[in-house]
Amino acid sequence: MAPIERITLFKIPNEADRLRLLEQYKVLAKTATKDGKPYILSAAVGQSFDDPRNKGFTVSVKTTFASMEDMKYYDAECEAHKALKAVAAPIKEDVLTTYFESVL
């Protein structure tokens, strides 16, 4: 079974709010645990480059999980992710998430 790759895009118009979200992702990277151990295989986050193809999405995130079970834990139970969602909820205009198993 291949790892689960997850892409999340945020549309956050205010620069200061984008920076707050980026800082919260740094906290998440240090504190997200399952059964007392880190479980996110890798994470990358940054402000999207200004390009018409991004359709106004301003923050891009890629996370990798060992399994679908780990990603579901992230969505439903992870305290670090809950804290991140609390920061993102009032500042985002929109969010888009997709995930897949790579064929490469």
Tell me, briefly, the overall form. globular
Mean pLDDT across all amino acids: 97
Q: Any idea what the radius of gyration is?
A: 14 Å
Q: H/E series, N to C? A: EHEEEEHHE
Helix content: 25-40%
Percent strand equals 25-35%
Q: State the distance separating the first and last CA atoms.
A: 12 Å
How does this structure look, described?
The chain is α+β, with helices and mostly antiparallel strands. The chain has a domain at 1-62. Helix content is 35%, strand content 34%. The protein has 3 helices and 6 strands. It has helices at residues 15-31, 68-76, 79-88; strands at 4-11, 33-34, 37-38, 40-47, 59-65, 94-101. The strands form 2 sheets. A 4-stranded antiparallel β-sheet has the order 4-5-1-6. Helix 1 runs antiparallel to helix 3 (79-88). The longest helix has 17 residues, at 15-31. It is globular, with a radius of gyration of 14 Å. The model has no long low-confidence stretch (mean pLDDT 97). Pfam families: Dabb (PF07876). Residues 4-100 form the Stress-response A/B barrel domain. This is Stress-response A/B barrel domain-containing protein.
